[in-house]
Design brief:
CATH topology: Growth Hormone, Chain: A
Helix content: over 70%
CATH architecture: Up-down Bundle
CATH superfamily: MFS general substrate transporter like domains
CATH class: Mainly Alpha
Distance between the termini: 42 Å
Order of helices and strands: HHHHHHHHHHH
Number of helices: 11
Radius of gyration: 21 Å
């Protein structure tokens, strides 16, 4: 009730709403016209054919299935089911959150300098490796004892997973802005976040069901690792950004 009227009054969607021109507007038009002359670039999609564009099919469902859904929801019961104390589990969760924040900020900086397709692909791949690291200890009776006796290994997982937890957001949004423009961008972003929420909901619900039946998170973690490898491959195969977006990033 407090935030809504403030946003309604002060939040503006376009520079024209406050009587100014967008920064670099003339250069943007010039670079975009130059991009139309090239054959190797994917131009922004303005029409309603975004469903046919490869950039529409981002693996964001997998992203949230493995982060907010699986790990952010089940990390505490997973650690406690392994036998870690409340103090160790709480410390690991704190480390995950801290490095999640840092990873998100750094990813935003790097998204302006690197190829965002490769960046997203690497983030998914590295996130999958962190889950494989966890599986190595959880699927072997000898290693699980070593894992519990050395809590720093849980901290290593928390830090590494935290770095790539929400880091995918900045390069994903940057790619969307390169693939779509006008009304298409808003519609596609809406669909993207719808899949985001579905992945989060299913990723929270199913691992709980599997744990109740099997008594472990192994099947959920294996599924997450496989899905992340698929997401990494799908991201690497996304089309290139258009010339205008690449020029802004350099």
């Amino acid at each position: 009730m407090v935030i809504f009227p403030i946003l309604a009054i002060f939040l503006k969607s376009d520079p024209a709403d406050i009587g100014i021109k967008p920064l670099g507007a003339e250069k943007s038009v010039e670079k975009q016209s130059q991009a139309s002359l090239g054959d190797h670039v994917t131009l922004p999609v303005a029409e309603k054919n975004y469903l046919l564009h490869r950039g529409f099919w981002f693996p964001y469902f997998i992203c949230e299935f493995t982060t907010t859904g699986l790990m952010d929801t089940h990390f505490i019961p997973l650690a406690q089911s392994c036998g870690f104390s409340v103090a160790v589990t709480g410390s690991a969760v704190s480390l995950l959150a801290i490095f999640n924040t840092g990873g998100t900020i750094v990813a935003g900086i790097l998204a302006d300098r690197w190829d965002n397709r490769k960046m997203v692909a690497w983030i998914y791949f590295l996130r999958g490796l962190t889950i494989v690291f966890l599986l190595i200890f959880l699927t072997n009776e000898k290693w699980i004892g070593f894992f519990i006796e050395h809590p720093w290994l849980l901290f290593v997982f928390a830090i590494s997973f935290g770095i790539v937890d929400f880091a995918v957001v900045a390069p994903t949004v940057k790619l969307l802005a390169g693939y779509f423009q006008g009304p298409s961008l808003g519609i596609v972003t809406g669909f993207l976040y719808m899949s985001h929420q579905l992945g989060s909901a299913i990723g929270s619900f199913l691992p709980g069901i599997f744990f109740d039946r099997a008594g472990s998170y192994t099947s959920s973690l294996v599924t997450a690792a496989l899905l992340l490898m698929i997401a990494a491959l799908a991201s690497a195969c996304l089309p290139k950004q258009n010339f205008h977006q690449e020029a802004k990033a350099t």
